[in-house]
Amino acid sequence: MQTVQDGDIFTVSTSEALQSNCWVGQKMTTPVKLRIIMGENNSEKLTLPSGIPESVEDLKLEIKRQCAVAEDFRLQYMDVDFDEFINLTSTAALQHLGTVKVITNAQEATGEGSTPQVLRSLSVESTSLSSTDTEILSTPDSSPSPTSMLRSQAWPASFPIPQFSYEVELQLVKANQEYHKNGTLLNPSPKLKSAILESLASVIIKYKAYPTSAEFDDVAEALIKTHACLKEQGSVTGFYGWKISLKYKMANYRSSLRNITSELSINSMKHRGGHTSPNQVKKPRKAEVNFLPDYPVGENQETLENERLELLSEVKKRDNNQIIKVKMDKTFAYRRKEVVVDMPSIAEFQSRWPALFAESEISAEFTRITTIPLSKFMSELDHHSAKLSRVCLKKGGVAGRKIAEIMASINENDTIATRRACNLKSLAVYLNEDPEKLIKEYLDVNFDNAQSELDMTALGIYVIKHEGADASDPPEDVGIIVEGVVMLKHIGDLACAVALLFGLIYNLNLSYPPDLKYSFEFLQKVLMGIDTHRLSNKVQVLKNKLHE
Question: Exposed/middle/buried for 433, CB within 10 Å: 0-12, 13-18, 19+?
Fold first, then answer.
């Protein structure tokens, strides 16, 4: 290999170049090329010499620079599993020669670039989805505008250690060299330790304000993996002291932001009336990413209330789903404040926000809160279907006999809807819970007599069957009830109703039914992959069997 320096040619062997950590000041990395779709009949090639960026925001900056995009936008990528565009929440989903779509705010408002994404059934049989199934499985194009200050990513699988200040990095580089040379650990000064913790806290807050103990473990472990010199001598994990220090630093960091962000100001002493009970702290309980966001830039309670009043008129019109979606995105923070802080009755909230109780908006709101599409519920349920059936059927005793009775329905009517319903019911029985605590089944001739029971139902699904109907006949009606109020009816099948109920629990900030806590833990942590750090023994055992 030949290169030039000050006009002279000299030779460097390829092996020497590769052994060096840098070549012309840059690390040897594999360039990546992406196809960027800017609009209809408009695409560009994006070259990333240093590989795929670590975050979506970094990728957006590169697209702005190379493709000259001035306005705000969000990204979708072509998913290889479904051959469709899906919202991009992590750059880990991208690969060389992949396709990324840019969707600007202007396109959102006009509906241009909106791609309905109906999840294909993972069943081996060829079965067309019902219209209801299509509605619930549609992935909403509903990422709110960046001006709303919403978080765009859930807690990362691998926590990214930030680039520290020049002074801190200089000390860590020298200390890491000493560690790798002779094993000497660094005893950081109070100033250095405080600077490191401050930087880590500023990254943690981008994902959540109240990390769990396991998530503090993630950060501390990532720190000593990145900077081995910071390991703690005598600590079993090597990072226990860092974890404890991080907890205190995050508490102080939250205090410094309490007058700035709604998520933290609501828990200040003046808002809680001087009470300090941990149960009164309003914080995510089910790993919500956007639990209580701030209002969009330039908006206040008055302007957003006007938007809500306009929504009441828009829901009465036909063929204006795009207008409703844009307004629902805009009023998301206002709606969350009402749900989390004001806590109105379900009936009152439904009357104020009727658009939220359409199936498409239940799915969209769930994605705003978690960043995860509700369509994942069905795809994962179908993915685990065969293995879950086999595991449940191996259950012995009374529970095993009950599962066998439930699964017998498949022999009478072997459809996707039947298998999904049987698996969901069997799941509860397998976990020693009663599915009838959630799912109420009635004959149409007796439904009027059951109304009083439904009026007392805090959270449930009703299924009305026609008397004398065959096993292959669909139910007369499937609906969802919350606090005795019918939220939805004519859903179509039981599995879609469970998925929508799961979404409503997040959207309305409800707690899981105590009698079915393990079933809902499985749905959340295993099926949806939300907060997978710590599972109960029952759910962990079932998860292990599904992956054997």
Answer: buried
